Amino acid sequence: MAHHPTTHQAHEDHGSVFSRIIAPFLWLFFITALEFIIALYIKTEETKVIWSTVFVLMTLVKAFFIVAYFMHLKFEKIGLKWSIVAPMLFVLYLILLLVLEGRYMYQSLWN
Amino acid sequence: MATPVIASSAPEQPQATSSLWGGGRNPMGAQYGKLMMWFFLLSDAFTFSGLLIAYGVLRMSHDWWPDPEQVFQSVPFVADHGMPLIFVGIMTFILIMSSVTMVMAVDAGHKRNQKMVVFWLVLTIIGGSMFLACQALEWEHLIHQGASMSGNPFGPKYDAVAGVSDFNSPQNFAQLFFTITGFHGAHVTSGVIILIILLINVVRGIYQKTGNYEMVEKIGLYWHFVDLVWVFVFTFFYLI
Which of B104, B141, B174, B199 has the most CB within a 10 Å radius? Predict the structure, then answer.
């Protein structure tokens, strides 16, 4: 195997251990802890829909921290970033389509 | 399209050309193996999306769905019921921690610190194994309560204390749970096996000889992806 002198140098300049590892971990930890508190003590039958939306948003924030910092995508080249993110936008469209279809199925089955 | 490459003028050994896509360079700034790991993970993300979207649509099309706080009440060896979501909280914490130790292993690899790579990899393997053990205990408990691929006891009349079963409930619930957490668990299992192989290679000094620990980074990507999927599974199965 050839020695790639550039590969390990390229990663050294992206901040301290705190900003790259500890801070994202603390975010993940506190968001998850908050989710538990909401699910166990704050969420009620009436506010279920609102909190479900909040849970999805919190999940997306957690996903951002994992992909951007732990998986290092934030520091990759723009071409690599978009080749991963752009296809996922089609998944978002699929979610939109099938959520609407699911609502329609619900209405025609149960009402 | 990018600038055409004239094949006949290509030299015997690949050399860096002036054009970015002309060969001999990494246009995406990542080595081949790492790039392919990213694209594999993208395809894996589609698979998990398919499963989770199917779950979402089926759930939305039902007028009643089991409440996770009613279903996931047990903590093995502590209480059979009455402790909603505590156990899955422990599982989530274990997996996030194993992701952090994996980042530390990748970081030690960049510094070519063999001993620290070994140390963090061992912790990651322990974390992954603990998660799998927790999942096995949770599955066992649910199967004992009557959950299976064809039946779901957690109906509208289900009572965790009395253990009353009601099979007039969404049949898909237990099946979707076992399929999706099982598919995720299969990923964790293969992740632990790959990490053990990686650990053996690191201990043997293979990456010390080749001069870079990029393999740790590639396996790390896979491990973080497994953690990422769990974040979504956790939200859609246990919280909402």
Answer: B174
In angstroms, the separation between the Cα of residue B210 and the nearest Cα of chain A is 6
Q: pTM of the entire structure?
A: 0.87
Report the gap between the CA of A16 and the closest CA in chain B (Å): 11
With respect to residue B78, please indicate whether it lies within any of the assigned structural domains: yes
pLDDT tens, residue by residue, B78-123: 887 888 889 999 999 999 999 999 999 999 999 999 999 999 999 9
Whether residue A94 is found in the same domain as residue A50: no
Q: Indicate whether A18 and A41 sit together in one domain.
A: yes
For residue B42, give the nearest of A11, A80, A14, A104 by alpha carbon.
A80
How many domains is chain A partitioned into structurally?
A: 2
Q: Are residues A53 and A83 in the same domain?
A: no
Rounded Cα distance, A29 and B93, in Å? 8
Q: How far apart are CA A39 and CA A52, in angstroms?
A: 9
Nearest CA in chain B to A108: B61
Do A55 and B231 lie within an 8 Å CB cutoff? no
Range of the domain at A57: 1-75
